[in-house]
Amino acid sequence: MSNLKASTEAPIISTKPKTKAPLKQRMRKHLVHLFLLPAVVLYGVFQLYPLITAVINSFYSWDGFSRDSFVGFQNFTTLLTESPFKETFIRAFTHNWIFFIVTFFTELTIAFALALVINSRLKGKGFFKTIFFVPKLLSVIVIGFLFSLILNPTSGAINVLLKTVGLDFLAQPWLGNTSTALVTIVLIHSWAGIGFSMLIFLASLQSVDKEIFEAARIDGAHGVSMLFKITLPMVMNSVMTMTILTFIGSFETFELIFAMQGSAGGPYYSTDVLGTYFYRLAFGSAEGGQALGLGSAIAVILFLIIACATSILLYYFKRKDFER
Amino acid sequence: MKAKGLWIVALVMILSIFVSACSGGKDVASSDDGKKDVKDGEKTKLVMYSWRPEDRSMYEKAIAAFQDKNPNIEIEFQPYKSTEYNTILTNALVSGEGPDIIQLRPYEGAKSIADNGYIMPLDDVKGVSDINEQFLDAARGSDGKVYGVPLSLNSAVIFYNKKIFKDNGIDVPTTYEEFLNVCEKLKDKGITPIAQSGRAAYLLSLTHAAIGPTAYGANDFVDKVLDGSAKLTDPEFVKSVQWMSDLKKYFPKDFVALEDNDAQTLLYTGKAAMYINGDYRLATLEDTAPDMEIGIIPGFAEEKGGTPVVTTWVDGSYAGVKNSKHPEEVKAFMEFLASPEFGKIFTDEMDRVSAISGIKPDNEIVSKLAEAVDQSSTPYLMLVHFGKGEPTTKTTFENALQGMYLGKLSVDEVAKQAEESYEKAK
């Protein structure tokens, strides 16, 4: 908001003769900057300050209560080279990648397909749009709780349903099996996020000039060729945005896993991601054991991963943009 | 017209600021007066932190009993959610603007707070020296001084449904071998022998605490741990893990995916006959299923006819914050917590065993358990002696057990992971 004000008012003043502007006007010119202050203060207190503190903390050892001594990069080397920290870190990091890849192929593709369907000449568009968006309105904790009930191995709806229709062999302890737990949670996450992605894609599709599609159709584009040659390139910007947002979301993911599997990322660390690992190190368990230095180091590494990967993705997509 | 309107608005605003400033001044003055009143009556308010919001009614009764004798001390019970307690407490202690009385996590949790100098030593408080030395260990600093008054003594026990045992002609087992026979019999009848859940890994180490001591030789092994000659990879300890692995066939199907609530439901509905947890679950079980007759197996004896060994640990204790403005009043309350009067209120309100010696509980089951504890007890090995490290050896061990049940680790690997974690934490 305040940015907007500054940029709209500044040019008006600068059009007046620059020499010897009355004192009052010069004051006003500077006064304008004051409008930025609330935003700067909020950003500073809630974004910059914690970030800087985390970076500083990651270079110190902790005694559980207060900062102890400066240890340089020791927290980072401990995390990345010492057992069992190294193994836990690599496992959690891999799970974050699985999280991203599965979300990308389920949430984004299904959302895009839904957006295409809704963008076509479908009856009751508004109704479907609302229905698909509803899960986004639920809190993550509520979603976690509901799905824990649905996936309960003895009384949960999914297994009861599978057994009723005679598919007993498919009934699984979905969240209690190391091979299914992570994917199950990612699918729940995707289900919850489809509505939002769909709206972004839909908005992007609707902003494309209809004449382009008609022209392509006259030129003989149909079905798949229309999708890959015309539709996708036209909405590439939104695909790019959603890919980057999904990447950031996948590496920051924490709430759903914490709500469903606890901070240990159970069973046997099969759903452990960097977020839950960070939580365990920084805040410990009921029996104590806080290692804020190590926790902060994870936070810093996480920040660097997201910043680097986002820049690379942005650079790649921007270049593609120019090539077109 | 417009200008006139603006003037009126401005006037109203100025007036309202003036009025509110005046009334604000009055408020300040009156609150000052209030403070003076308190000082005149010498009434002191102490703030007390706890991680047990569910125990409020017991504390209200206890505090009322305390105030009968100390009318000038007011105590405000401020509980927080257990999972958030550590963070809130740490922040309060570091900022120095915290409570006067705090609940301490046992063993390593208490030690780290004591060693950092946040709480006052309580050795000279009346009643503290009468408490069992072993219980006081839960609240000792590295300097050997006592920093907390232990509240309760928890035991890892096996609950059983008396009716199912009676209907199937099963006697209550007293040794591990008898226990296995009982499990086998129940399984043959189509009843799940043990309602175990494994979603939260700590429940697995709790089951190990109830079953394990007989396997590793209870206090003999604990003594070896204390003098440093025992390893978790020693055959005695590996045997206890083997026993855990053997019990898998008596647990419900897919029990690693089950929550503690699901396990309790199996017991309530009569689908399972036994349930292993801390004795503090008794009140919950009795409240939820008042018609079910519950019995407790406190532990196993080495041989038939022997004394059962009960696994016990102190759950929490109360400490006085060093920089409290009212240290004398805090100590008066500590003295009350260490008195038989509080012990009696605690045990009868909570159906749990008090850490204060010589308290006779009203509840029959609790009373029997307290007797068994008096006869022979062994500490909850993982919690009491393996609570160090990042992550702690206890956490490593229970997660490894979960891995074992999922086929990811062998029995030996579980012991090895725990030993490696212990070596690192030393």
TrEMBL record, chain A:
Q: What is its main location?
A: membrane
Q: Where in the cell is it found?
A: Cell membrane
- Example GO biological process: transmembrane transport
Q: What InterPro entries does this protein's entry cite?
A: ABC_transporter_permease (IPR051393), MetI-like (IPR000515), MetI-like_sf (IPR035906)
Organism domain of life: Bacteria
Looking at the UniProt entry, the stretches that span the membrane are 34-60, 97-118, 130-151, 181-205, 226-248, 291-317
Specify the protein's topology with respect to the membrane: Multi-pass membrane protein
Looking at the Swiss-Prot or TrEMBL record, what is one Pfam family this protein matches?
Answer: BPD_transp_1
Query: What positions does the domain ABC transmembrane type-1 occupy?
Result: 93-313
Coiled coil location: none
The UniProt family comment states: Belongs to the binding-protein-dependent transport system permease family.
Q: What is this protein called?
A: Carbohydrate ABC transporter membrane protein 1 (CUT1 family)
Q: Which organism is it from?
A: Falsibacillus pallidus
From TrEMBL, chain B:
Q: Where is the signal peptide?
A: 1-21
Q: Establish whether keyword Signal is in the entry.
A: yes
Q: What CDD domains does this protein's entry cite?
A: PBP2_TMBP_like
Look up the record and give one Gene Ontology term from the biological process aspect.
Answer: transmembrane transport
Mention any Pfam family matching this sequence.
SBP_bac_1
- Annotated InterPro entries: Bact_solute-bd_prot1, SBP, SBP_1_CS
Please state what the protein is called.
Answer: Carbohydrate ABC transporter substrate-binding protein (CUT1 family)
Organism for this UniProt entry: Falsibacillus pallidus
